[in-house]
Amino acid sequence: MQMDPITLEIIASRFEEIQQIMKQRLFRTGYSTILRESFDGSSGLTTADGRLIGASGVSYHTVPYSMMVKWIVAHFGLDDIHPGDTFLSNDPYKGCVAHTPDVAVVTPVFADGVLVAFCTSMGHKPDVGGIAPSTSSALSRSIFHEGLVVPPVKLYARGVPNEGVQRILANNSRTPELLMGDIEGQVGCTRIGRQLMEELCARYSVPVVQAAMELLLDSAETRLRLALAAVPDGDASAENWLDGDGASDRPVKVHVTVRKRGDTLSLDLTGSDPQTLGPANAVEQACRAAATGAVLGFLDPGIPFNDGVFRAIEIDTGEGLCVSPRFPSPVNSYIPTTHILFNCVAQALGQLCPERAFADSGLGCGGFGFGYAQPGGGPTRVQYEVIETALGGTSRGDGAPMVFTVMIFESVEPIEIVETEFPVRIDDFSVRTDSGGAGIHRGGLGYCRSWRVLQDAQFSSRTSHRRFGASGIAGGGAPLPSRTTLNPGRPDERVLNGLEQLNLKAGDVIRLEQSGGGGWGDPKDRDGQALLDDVADGYVSEESARRAYGRAVTREPSGRVAFLRE
Amino acid sequence: MTWSIGIDTGGTFTDVAGLDLATGRLHTVKVPSTPHDPSEAVLAGIDAFVASVPGMRSADIGFFAHGTTVATNAVIERKGARSGLLITRGTGAVYMARSSAQPMPGEMIDPGYRKPSPLIPGRMTREITERTLFDGTIETPLDEASVLAAVRELVAAGDVESIAICFLFSFMNPTSELAARDIIHRHHPDIRVSLSCELLPVIREYRRLSTTVADAFVGPVLQTYLGRLGDGLRARDVADGQSFIMQSNGGLMTVEVARANPVQTLLSGPAACVISGAYLSGITGIPNIVTFDVGGTSTDVALIVGGQITETQAGTIAGHHAYVPMNEISTIGAGGGTIARVGQDGRLKVGPDSAGASPGPACYGRGGSEPTVTDADLVLGYLHPNTFLGGTFPIQEEAARNAIADAVARPLGLDLDAAAMGIIKLTTSLMEGELRLRLLARGYDPRGFALVAVGGAGPLHASLIARNLGIQQVIVPPYPGLGSAMGLLLTDVKRSYVQSRLRHFDEAVLPEMETLFAALIARASDEVERGGKDLGEVQLERVVDLRYVGQGYELSIPLAPGPLTPASIEAARARFHELHLDFYGNAAPEKPLEMINLRIKTTTPLRKLSLPRLDCVEEGTVAQPDGWRAVYFEEGGRVQTGIFQRNKLRPGHVVNGPAIIDQMDSTTVLLPAQRARIDAYGNILIATGEGAL
Q1: Among candidates A372, A553, A384, A399, which has minimal Cα distance to A472?
Q2: Where does the pLDDT of residue B324 fall: very low under 50, low under 70, confident under 90, or very high at 90 and above?
Q3: Which of residues 282-341 of B touch A (CB under 8 A)?
Q4: What string of H, E and C letters represents the secondary structure of B30-87?
Q5: B454: buried, middle or exposed (CB in 10 Å: 19+, 13-18, 0-12)?
Q6: Of the residues B579, B604, B629, the one at which a domain ends
Q7: Are residues A489 and A519 in the same domain?
Q8: Most B CBs within 10 Å, among A52, A196, A410, A451, to test the B interface
Q9: For B423-447, how does the pLDDT look when each residue is reduced to its tens digit (9 = 90+)?
Q10: Residue B102 touches chain A, beta carbons under 8 Å
Q11: Same domain, yes or no, for A521 and A533?
């Protein structure tokens, strides 16, 4: 169909706007702190056959949307998908989410009797059942330990709610109100998207809207191919390790070989370790999303993340590996695995194209869950906090401090909200001095945070990298690795693994010291004033200035700092 | 002779709008802005205004209102005061971590993602031993010696002019912050102290911290500015006791109150323009309005719903957050100077970069070679070299044609008109997108709104945008380019006071609400009395911010006047469910609510500008064009189009589209088949015709 480029362009901009509207609705109606304070959710659009048009919000939800819609189309068939239907799933193996707390909602869009698109939404839920509060636990050895697993089902059929499904969902969560409140918000946001898509079709006709979808995919492909063509051809590999899988302390390897030819790229992950007994596996769609995100982030973050980019990137995840686990392997702690995958892809590309190379972001992102039994036997209250590190230095500047690096956003929960809503005290939330790797452009800084529980609690640590850390680049230093300590300074002090499940007693303290990002370039060449400012601001210690940067700095009692005459 | 005048400082011009109270006559003057010290242009504007009115003296100005961007620019250019920060021990990461932001797709995978560096750096921050708990209990009393030691260090290290203090849970119990301030005042009376418990007593420490820091950072700068301005006003005998400054919430405050609350001016720049929109809503009887203010580099849009300006409690300047009540205005990076180009992927893109005033659009002939929206307007015939800015500013059509031909038409294989139209359509589509986002994310239907077109370029594109959005009517006020200066003459003194308190919202909370409201009213009363007035002259509104238990975002619900009773609770609950349904498409009347904040809003009414009714012609008289030219429209291509002079149109006149209506500061475009009439106040009301969403 011959279309004028302006009209297509206008419709293409409407798709982005519709995703934005859906996302804003989602976050503003959220009940759980994860959704409303940390924004761990997204909304998206796919074509009628499940190709991703785009997603607004968390970038890991991109590929899962596509795979979930494809599953629905394949298994329900076009004759069982109707106007007014809304599907729901949190199944990492069928619904294609990354782990069970991510509940996805999908609503088809019809116009002129034709299935045109799907509006999608995903949000991380505080709890969908399972062995431990917040669902994700180091103790999990199977997907069956990871709470209620719902394959794609109709939550609404022709506009009528499926009350059976709703009751099953509510009945299997420690936080039914938050779960169902968030789900209703997701349904609402996909319905807004559906209405807007219907109006778009009514105005421009279905074939024109479909042509605009193809334009978006084509142009993302074109931009990616142009960017790839500018990178020298070649092969490069990178690898890194997880501390363990939650079941044992045996390190788990993630390995990437990139092969760049002309305007295409292939990523081979088959050198990674086999799937693990504990929950460190990352399902294929999460790995594809992370690896693709790394490619786009490295080449040009402005390239739209849609299905078009997969025409130029081929990803082989193998089978039965920690990056392609088989059912029913446990998968709840997938973030660290995808994080090192992201870093490895960027590192390998950096070998091919050193002028764009950037240092690793700090390892050890993830989440902490605290479950408090209610006095009097009410439902357990679940506090979930996102754990962040920082970005690495780049050729352009220092890494950004204190962000969730795998999908960059700022999301540490307010102390006042946490202490008001849960029986816990945040005794410390401070900048971790020297946590960023030294460099001409140093890594961003991580933070320290201490939780003192005021009542007995179940604690889940779903993070990683207490032994293996991130690297600097081009002569830049490595950041301090992350560390978690139970009851520091007490006789029962213990350094914890990334994946742990513990029972805490009232008064117990969890102390977190997070990694910063890696450094870029030789620290000896860092700008003198920038180093002095860092020491004055408490970001770099005097000792580290001497040791890592090779400059002796003195501090006057007023806090003013200066270089010592050499 | 008594005049009220409003003066708005813009980037290029400082606008003065004056109202002769005896006759209702409106008179305006423009002078060049003086960015190095904006008060020079304000005072020069007064002098120019007085000189332009025969027989007028500056002492005839009985009322003076001013919108200033001094505080805003101090943040953008990082030229604030030397400031220090005191925080609770163990909260040093709060400022750097900032608060959650909704992730943007491109940023989420950008290794070069940045945060703005703090306005007060770590070296000027000190941690103080003290701790208050969530219920207001003081666990660790303030260590007074550590406050004094910290302040001495800050003075020694940076010669601080101001100090921000933000302690945990000070909104529940301000004792420690107040005590710290007293210590500073005792030993360093010259240091200006900003307290989070006074500026923003609400939950979430980062919000209080960033707002308090902004206040400390801009406070001394604004004070100096207001001091200079005040001297100039006094020297001219202007408006003694009736001098006001615009706040971010679109209300005025006295100069004295402004000195004490600099952070309230931070986002006041575009606020006044929205007031003009609300005023037009009043005189035209149209309750729901979108204001559409198009400048050279950006476009501001704001909503007026049921005659009320939409407020928000959070704003951002250059990445720095200030949580103050403000008119909710969203900005789109597209305006007249926005550049169009074809990307490597063969797609046409407009913006976000702009040619600005220099080099400006290609047609300015100042070295700009890339095509802009203004160039497209010129090629299509919406603008004309003879009438651009009243013909005072020469522009070159040939340069515009060449730029569009080279950069857009040829690469896309389009003819020149289609390429120029493409630039307009894509630009207006971006503007429409933002409008639709604002409206639909809140559940409003565009078909129930009118569009008020202001700014130099607003009336050029408003009729197209309105039609595409399904908005039925466009209003072009008599002086579209003077929206902000006019707005200053159209508002009241407005203040608001807030206090956080998380409680289940039911009858049991009534006694505590009484106490908290009484304390807020006492604060309001104190400020009103210091301004030489009595609380009796002030309209008072009580508002409670509510949400479903467990939800993260609250809705503000006004309480009915009169004593608080169980019935007030019931009414507020009912209103909340209603509003939630409106905003979010769902409501759960069976679910319990919780209260987050209590607010008091005070309004002291001022005498306002009212546009005079003009002499009219017989209703429905079809206006005759002053000339014709071939203008390009999306449907139908080039058509002979009537060109009208705005100042010849009288109330009662009807203009049939297609038409171009020229005036000194703007040009209004009517599409084919659209029809406009001139109302009693001289507004152009365009019926945009049927439109789809």
Answers
A1: A399
A2: confident
A3: none
A4: EEECCCCCHHHHHHHHHHHHHHHCCCCCHHHEEEEEEECCHHHHHHHCCCCCCEEEEE
A5: buried
A6: B604
A7: yes
A8: A410
A9: 999 999 889 888 888 887 666 788 8
A10: yes
A11: no
Tokens coding B380:
């299509």
Q: State the count of interchain CB pairs (< 8 A) between A and B.
A: 249
Angle between helical axes of A284-299 and A62-76 (0-180°, round to 10): 140
Q: Can you give the pLDDT at residue B692?
A: 35
Together in a domain, A522 and A534: no
Cis status of the peptide bond prior to A83, with omega within 30 of 0: no
Cα A98 to Cα A498: distance, rounded to the nearest angstrom:
19
**Strand duo B61-67 + B243-246: pairing:** parallel
pLDDT of residue B362: 94
Q: Do B594 and B500 belong to one domain?
A: yes
**Domain stop point among A199, A222, A245:** A222
Contacts of A346 in chain B (CB under 8 A): 111
For A347, residues 6+ apart whose C-beta sits below 8 A from its C-beta are A238, A357, A360, A471, A473
- From the CB of residue B473, how many other CB atoms can be counted at a distance below 10 Å? 17
- Last residue within a domain, chosen from A204, A222, A240: A222
In a domain, A406, yes or no: yes
**Is it the case that residue B691 has pLDDT exceeding 50?**
no
- Residue A256 φ then ψ, to 5°: -130, 135
Q: What is the pLDDT of residue B550?
A: 66
Domains identified in chain B, total number: 3
Give residues 514 to 553 of B whose Cβ lies within 8 Å of A: 548, 550-553
Is B173 a domain residue?
A: no
CATH number at residue B569: 3.30.1490
Same domain, yes or no, for A500 and A550? Answer: no
User: Which helix (H) or strand (E) element contains residue A331?
Assistant: none
A382: which DSSP letter? E
Domain C-terminal end among B408, B424, B440? B424
Q: Which domain holds residue B18?
A: 3-74+223-265
Asked if A11 and A99 sit in the same domain, the reply is: yes
In a domain, A266, yes or no: no
pLDDT category at B240 given cuts 50, 70, 90 is confident
Q: Which segments of A33-90 does DSSP mark as H helices, in order?
A: 33-36, 62-76
B590 sits in which H/E element:
none
Instruction: Calculate the alpha carbon distances from A427 to A484, A508, B171, B352 in Å.
Output: 15, 12, 19, 44
Does residue A432 lie in a domain region?
yes
**pLDDT of B583:** 65
Q: Are residues A11 and A144 in the same domain?
A: yes
The domain tally of chain A equals 3
- Number of other CB atoms surrounding residue A505 within 10 Å: 12
Sheet holding B192-195, edge to edge: B125-128, B83-88, B162-166, B192-195
Q: Give B570's contacts (C-beta < 8 A, 6+ positions apart).
A: none
- Check residue A102 and report its DSSP letter: E
Q: Which residues are CB-contacts of B124 (< 8 A; sequence separation ≥ 6)?
A: B82, B83, B84, B85, B154, B157, B158, B160
Interface of B with A in 78-97 (CB under 8 A): 90-94, 96-97
A522 and A540 part of one domain: no
Residues of B in contact with A192 (CB under 8 A): 440, 585
Whether pTM exceeds 0.90: no
Residue A532's domain spans which residues? Answer: 527-566
The answer on A489 and A391 residing in a single domain is: yes
Residues composing chain B:
693
- Tens digits of residue pLDDT in B522-567: 988 888 887 777 777 888 999 999 988 766 677 889 998 888 999 9
Residue by residue, what is the 3-state secondary structure of A277-326? Answer: CCCCCCCHHHHHHHHHHHHHHHHCCCCCCCHHHHHCEEEECCCCECCECC
Contact assessment for residue A391 and residue A363, using Cβ atoms and an 8 Å cutoff: no
